[in-house]
Amino acid sequence: MELPVKNINELRVAAEKLIVFAGNEKIFLFYGDMGAGKTTFIKSLCRCLGVTEQTSSPTFSIINEYQATALKIYHFDFYRLKKEDEALDMGYEEYFYSGNYCFIEWPEKIAGLLPDHYIRVDINVLNNGERLLTFTKI
């Protein structure tokens, strides 16, 4: 599924469409260049799922945890990882297989540890500054 996003005000609708598209899947992998808007889109997803607290990038903490209406949301940013063993050390399996939402930025850093099924979200910045979101079920 492809979805053009002209500005930040359209992210809420895009987040709602992604949640419907995902169905029961709770693992989301976000791909895009630095500054493409991965964290900003994840903030919109969190709001759509009922998170009322402030959300932020887990760049330095690696993981942030939020309480949604019914479930927890784990937001990962693996950009700073040097090797997959660092994700093993933090017990990634407990999060990924908890049945809670997992939003994962920079999943290419842990490619060998990814689950078999997930939603892939590609965010591409177009020449005019708009974003093209592509959702794929894997």
Structurally, how many domains make up the residues?
1
Q: Radius of gyration, rounded?
A: 14 Å
Considering the protein shown, what is the CATH homologous superfamily? P-loop containing nucleotide triphosphate hydrolases
Uncertain segments are none
Compute the separation of the termini in Å.
Answer: 13 Å
Instruction: Please tally the β strands and state the result.
Output: 7
Q: Would you identify the CATH architecture?
A: 3-Layer(aba) Sandwich
Secondary-structure-derived class: alpha/beta
CATH class (first level) name: Alpha Beta
Mean pLDDT: 91
Apparent shape: globular
Number of helices: 4
Which percent bin holds the helix content? Answer: 10-25%
- Element pattern in H and E: EHEHEEHHEEE
Strand content: 25-35%
Instruction: Output the strand order for the largest sheet.
Output: 1-7-6-2-5-4-3
Keywords: ATP-binding, Cytoplasm, Magnesium, Metal-binding, Nucleotide-binding, Transferase, tRNA processing
Protein name: tRNA threonylcarbamoyladenosine biosynthesis protein TsaE
Subcellular location: Cytoplasm
Family: Belongs to the TsaE family.
Protein architecture, described:
- With 138 residues, this protein is an alpha/beta fold.
- The protein has one domain: Rossmann fold.
- Helices cover 24% and strands 28% of the residues.
- It has helices spanning 11-22, 38-48, 85-89, 92-96, and strands at 2-5, 27-31, 63-67, 72-77, 101-105, 119-125, 131-137.
- A 7-stranded mixed β-sheet has the order 1-7-6-2-5-4-3, covered by helices on one side.
- A hairpin with a 5-residue loop joins strand 6 and strand 7 (131-137).
- The radius of gyration is 14 Å and the shape is globular.
- The chain starts with a strand and ends with a strand.
- The mean pLDDT is 91.
- It is found in: Cytoplasm.
- One of its GO terms (molecular function) is transferase activity.
- Belongs to the TsaE family.
